[in-house]
């Protein structure tokens, strides 16, 4: 059966070894720096493009909607592989689990096919705009271009599902060394110890549909576009008409030129062979995987007047904001000097406990080899996150207690909001990842080493940080675009986003809707995921016949469950229902809201290491070993 074939696959080959780009350490270090730099440019460039197409109403057109999809797609594609590639440069043995390899192949294949179709849709948009300008608003209405974009994603995903399903059904019982830096499907197929003719035929058909048809469609569209442009009498008119599609044409040439060279002719060589892949193929794959997504926003920014104008408008809005409100005044926790001194001592002590407790947890998870497991890797990330979150606000709060006038600059306030929002969203996702880890460990212990391999849990953690950062970037970008021309007194002890939004002298309904959507994604979905995971966990634990067995099984997840209840109980109360009150009002915020915010911002990060230390035998043993080692060293 299909299930037995998959089990056989996993029993014979549980992981693949990636040869990478080069076996020379010096070259690998160079590639690490180069790829990391390019990846950061991709995130920044495409992130800015998405932001300006969302925030600027002048760009709410079909072309820029497709462009936003293209930028989001490029971020998804690179994030599915680049973090793993970078991690491979830091480890001597570059491995990836069978399931992790399948997921990576699916994502990269899906994104590639989707981009092919999307570029075809964009060509059609340019054809209608230039050849039939009077009918453009009707043909390319929102009811048309939104389903067109959705169909691109669906078609790409469906094609990838077919190709990867066929690939994972193959038996991999021989060599498990992939001569590539990622799980590239052609390199993986060479390792199968069975006939791959069906895979080759299937990929050939897919190439015709997702490469040939869009290329032909784009070619025909541009023939009509060029004919129409050449009929325009004035040279200035021709130049303006061509400028509206030159960026798209440049991207098409780079993208299809590379991908056609890579996948145009899938080879059906002996899969049992271990032929070395030419370095040129790897460099071409790198060019397609990194340079193309990096160049897309640069091309559209340099060759597109609307995008440059939108970016300038965003900058002018920010400058205008800073000219109207240069700084905010924080009311703090209390106006009574005696209480403020008490709060100063209390918060300082709690902050020191946070640094000490989470610092020790990070140290033991790094230094103790017994804790080099997915659960403790996530725990180390959680501790580092808690340190970052508190350090982004606590020093400013403490300084506020020592100065009579508690002020913060506009840009400083924006940075603080970004960091706190990013850390909060990241922690939500991270706790969901930790719940999945506990689910696999308890409900599927035999498959745990395969499912939760290093090649799986490292990208999971990275994706938590990326998702949290991306969400925060959207929310804070929307907030700083608002005009703050009236009251500048924030009734809080930090730049809390809801308290800041109340000061805006404009409608904040878009911000409220955006935060509502973010709450569903980063609060609702993880909570639901954790709830379902623990239903399965509890069901499995209750089936264990001995009381001692049930106790041991529950003890492995009791600390995580306690942290989840404390964290989500507080944050859901704080942000579950963002209120859209009159932003011009200066209504006093109830003291209980500040104390709840303090509880979430300080007590939760302080309690996390305490909970994990008291309720986890492994951590306690590791701490004692670390203390004992230091004592012996000093002795």
Automatic annotation (TrEMBL):
One of its GO terms (cellular component) is plasma membrane. Its main location: membrane. Keywords: Cell membrane, G-protein coupled receptor, Membrane, Olfaction, Receptor, Sensory transduction, Transducer, Transmembrane, Transmembrane helix. It holds the Pfam family 7tm_4. The chain crosses the membrane at residues 31-52, 64-90, 102-124, 144-168, 208-230, 242-263, 283-302, 343-364, 376-402, 414-436, 520-542, 554-575, 595-614. Residues 45-300, 357-612 form the G-protein coupled receptors family 1 profile domain. SUPFAM superfamilies: Family A G protein-coupled receptor-like. Coiled coil: none annotated. Odorant receptor. This is G-protein coupled receptors family 1 profile domain-containing protein. It comes from Myodes glareolus.
